[in-house]
Design a protein that fits this description.
The complex is a heterodimer of chains A (160) and B (190).
Chain A lengths: L1 H9 L10 H13 L3 H22 L14 E8 L8 E5 L7 E2 L1 E2 L4 E8 L3 E8 L2 E3 L7 E3 L5 E6 L3 E2 L1
Antiparallel strand pairs in A: 1-5, 2-3, 2-6, 4-5, 6-7, 6-9, 8-9, 9-10
Chain B lengths: L5 H9 L6 H20 L2 H17 L10 H19 L14 H5 L17 H13 L2 H12 L4 H8 L3 H19 L5
Helix pairs in contact in B: 2-3, 2-4, 2-7, 3-4, 4-8, 7-9, 8-9
The chains are: A alpha+beta (160), B mainly alpha (190).
C-alpha cells in the first residue's frame, strides 16, 4: 500500500513559471545593479543628518528650533551706557528677586544679558558701576518707592 | 549541440558576460519554481520568491563554490528565501507550520502536466487531488522532503545537501511524512 501512496506522490502536479519569467528575472537584476538614489538612500540620509548636526554646532544659522519649554521665553536685555566705558553693569529685577546679575560687555559702552523668563510683567533696572539706572530703551516705567523708577519688562520678548 | 556547463557559464558571468545568467535561469527555473510552489502553495508568491532567489544568486555568484552543484546551491538559496517569506508571514515556528488548504489548492488541476492525466492512467484524479491537499497540510519540513523527493525526483544525498542534514535524517523525515500522509488520507492509503 505504501507503493500506492508513492505512486500518487510521484504524479503530484508540476507547475511552471510564466513564459516571461527569465526576462523578468534579468530585468530585476539590471534594475538592482543600477546605482540609484534608493540604493544609497540610507547613506544620503545619514550624511544629511551629520551635515545638519555640524552646521547646528558650528554656525549661527537659524537651524535650531526655538523650543519654549514649559512656557519659558528667551529675552535679551541690552544696555548701552551714556557714561563712557563703565566698569560694571548688572541687571536686577523681580525676576531675580532683586539680586544683581552681571551683564556681559559686548563693546566699549554696551552690555547684554540673555534671560529665560515665563511670560508676564517684570520690574527691573540696571546697576551701572553700582548706580541704579532705568532701562533707557524701555517705554514703560513705574515708581520704585525709593524716589527712583523701575523699568517694566513685558515678557513676550519685548520690553515696554 | 555543445552545451556549456553551469560552471563555465558562471565563470563567464563573473567575467562580465552578465546576460549569460539568463541561461542558468532558463535551465533551473522549473525545478526551483516547483520546489518553491511546493512550499508556499500560492502561485504568485511562488513566482515572486523564485525570482528573488535567482536575483540573490546572481549577486552572490562570487560566493558560489564548486563543492556544490549549482542546482543544489540554488535550492538552498530558494529555501532561505522561502524561510524569510514565512518569517515575514509571522509564522514563528518553522517546524510546526501548517498551511491551511485554501483556494490555491483548487488551482492545482490547472497545472496537471500533459501525459499525466489520471483519467488516462491508473491514478484517480480525485485521489490525486486528495493527496495533493494532504501534502499541503504537512508540516513544512515534511512537505519539503516530499516535494524534493517525489516532485523534484532528487536523491537522498541531494536532499541532504540542500537541507544541510544527514541522509539518515532525510529518510526519517520521509518516513514520518508518509506516515502522516497515510493518517490524513485514511483507509484508502493505509
Amino acid at each position: 500500500m505504501g507503493e500506492k501512496l508513492e505512486q500518487y506522490l510521484r504524479h503530484l502536479p508540476k507547475v511552471e513559471p510564466g513564459r516571461s519569467f527569465a526576462p523578468s528575472v534579468m530585468a530585476c537584476i539590471a534594475e538592482r545593479a543600477r546605482p540609484s538614489y534608493r540604493r544609497y538612500k540610507r547613506w544620503v540620509v545619514a550624511f544629511a543628518a551629520v551635515a545638519l548636526f555640524v552646521l547646528m554646532l558650528t554656525t549661527n544659522l537659524p537651524l535650531t528650533p526655538r523650543l519654549e519649554l514649559f512656557g519659558y521665553r528667551t529675552v535679551r536685555l541690552v544696555f548701552c551706557s551714556t557714561v563712557r566705558n563703565p566698569k560694571t553693569v548688572a541687571v536686577a529685577g523681580d525676576f531675580s528677586d532683586w539680586e544683581s546679575i552681571p551683564m556681559e560687555r559686548v563693546d566699549e559702552n554696551c552690555f547684554a544679558l540673555t534671560l529665560r523668563l515665563r511670560p508676564g510683567k517684570y520690574e527691573y533696572g540696571f546697576l551701572v558701576d553700582g548706580k541704579w539706572v532705568p532701562d533707557p530703551l524701555s517705554l514703560r516705567a513705574v515708581a520704585d518707592g525709593f524716589g527712583s523708577v523701575n523699568s517694566v519688562l513685558v515678557v513676550d520678548g519685548d520690553t515696554e | 549541440m555543445w552545451e556549456q556547463s553551469d560552471r563555465e557559464i558562471i565563470q563567464e558571468v563573473l567575467n562580465g558576460n552578465k546576460d549569460l545568467f539568463a541561461v542558468l535561469v532558463a535551465r533551473y527555473e522549473k525545478p526551483i519554481f516547483n520546489y518553491v510552489y511546493g512550499l508556499v502553495r500560492q502561485r504568485q508568491d511562488a513566482e515572486d520568491l523564485t525570482q528573488e532567489a535567482f536575483v540573490k544568486a546572481f549577486f552572490a555568484l562570487r560566493t558560489y563554490r564548486d563543492s556544490f552543484e549549482f542546482s543544489t546551491w540554488m535550492y538552498r538559496i530558494a529555501r532561505n528565501v522561502c524561510l524569510d517569506y514565512f518569517r515575514r508571514q509571522k509564522i514563528r515556528s518553522f517546524f510546526s507550520l501548517n498551511t491551511p488548504v485554501g483556494e490555491e489548492e483548487d488551482e492545482l488541476g490547472d497545472f496537471l502536466p500533459e501525459g499525466k492525466d489520471p483519467e488516462e492512467g491508473v491514478l484517480k484524479e480525485e485521489l490525486l487531488e486528495r493527496v495533493s491537499q494532504a501534502v499541503g497540510q504537512l508540516p513544512l519540513k515534511f512537505r519539503e522532503v516530499i516535494v524534493l523527493r517525489y516532485v523534484e525526483e532528487l536523491s537522498y544525498e541531494e536532499i541532504a545537501r540542500i537541507l544541510d542534514v544527514p541522509v539518515g535524517t532525510v529518510k526519517t523525515y520521509l518516513h514520518r511524512a508518509k506516515a502522516k500522509l497515510r493518517e490524513l488520507l485514511g483507509e484508502e492509503f493505509s
